């Protein structure tokens, strides 16, 4: 039990180390950022946190890239890509291919840049197709549930058969509930930041407005804007801009209920 508690503590500590590294990276403190990412890498290797190990390696490659060590960046990304493929970590593969395409292009190695960009595009497409497939499976589960309900009503006089159909229906409904919950979470999340998207905001806002109107209570709305964010994209590129948005999104999740 104590060992399990320690693993849980180290898992949280590992995530905090990477968050600190990303913060220092944003400030331009490359040596400090490298130290945090390296500690995260070592902790991941110690406990076998495979996905975290890949994530730490990719962030370390970003430090190499900021220091102008393009070949070191490539070597670290290729190693991270091998680990991500071995552990079927699609998100790690996606990030590694995207960064490799960018670095190879800057090195003037256009053929490998094209190959990694091609794999990145195909992988991103496959992931999106899997999300769509989940949606279709949810719809299919709805039809199956309705069919089971109709059949159960027809054969109510056959107790043994009815019990069997009810058991199957419960199984399908549970599978449907899990599929719907997963799809609903995906449909309400922004794929870049992991925050709830505009569609979810409108749903919540509408319910809150109805609640305010019914109970005559005050309502406050806080809007957050990133000043001069366009300058980040123009100066450092859209990939870095995306990382800034992800970091800020994580901070908002940390500080808000």
Secondary-structure topology with pairs:
Elements: H1 2-27, H2 30-47, H3 50-66, H4 70-86, H5 90-107, H6 110-154, H7 159-187, H8 198-215, H9 229-236, H10 238-255
Helix pairs in contact: 1-2, 1-3, 2-3, 3-4, 3-5, 4-5, 5-6, 6-7, 9-10
Your description of this structure?
There is one protein chain. By secondary structure, the chain is mainly alpha-helical. 83% of the residues lie in helices and 0% in strands.
Question: Gist?
Answer:
The protein has 257 residues and is mainly alpha-helical. The protein is 83% helix and 0% strand. It is built from 10 helices and no strands.
SSE series: HHHHHHHHHH
Q: Kindly estimate the percentage of residues that lie in beta strands according to DSSP.
A: under 5%
Q: What is the average of the pLDDT values?
A: 84
Number of strands: 0
Overall, the morphology is: globular
Low-confidence stretches: none
Largest sheet: none
- SS-derived structural category: mainly alpha
- C-alpha-based Rg, rounded: 24 Å
Number of helices: 10
Distance between the termini: 29 Å
* Helix fraction by DSSP (H/I, runs of at least 4): over 70%
Task: Name its key features.
single chain, mainly alpha, 10 helices
């Amino acid at each position: 039990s104590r060992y399990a508690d320690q693993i849980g503590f180290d898992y949280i500590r590992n995530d905090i180390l990477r968050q600190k590294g990303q913060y220092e990276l944003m400030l331009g403190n490359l040596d400090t950022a490298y130290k945090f990412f390296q500690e995260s890498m070592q902790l991941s290797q110690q406990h076998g946190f495979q996905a975290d190990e890949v994530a730490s390696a990719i962030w370390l490659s970003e430090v190499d890239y900021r220091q102008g060590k393009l070949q070191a960046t490539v070597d670290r990304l290729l190693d991270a890509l091998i680990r991500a493929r071995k552990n079927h970590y699609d998100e790690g593969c996606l990030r590694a291919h995207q960064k490799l395409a960018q670095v190879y292009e800057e090195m003037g190695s256009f053929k490998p840049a094209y190959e990694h960009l091609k794999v990145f595009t195909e992988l991103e497409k496959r992931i999106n197709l899997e999300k769509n497939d989940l949606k279709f499976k949810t719809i299919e589960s709805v039809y199956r549930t309705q069919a089971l309900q109709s059949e159960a009503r027809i054969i109510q006089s056959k107790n043994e058969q009815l019990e069997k159909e009810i058991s199957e229906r419960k199984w399908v409904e549970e599978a449907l509930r899990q599929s719907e919950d997963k799809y609903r979470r995906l449909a309400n999340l922004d794929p870049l930041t992991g925050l709830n998207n505009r569609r979810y905001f409108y749903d919540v806002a509408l319910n809150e407005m109805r609640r305010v109107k019914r109970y005559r209570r005050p309502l406050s709305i806080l809007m957050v804007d990133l000043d001069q964010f366009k300058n980040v994209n123009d100066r450092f590129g859209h990939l870095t801009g995306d990382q800034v948005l992800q970091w800020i999104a994580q901070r908002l999740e940390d500080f808000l209920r």
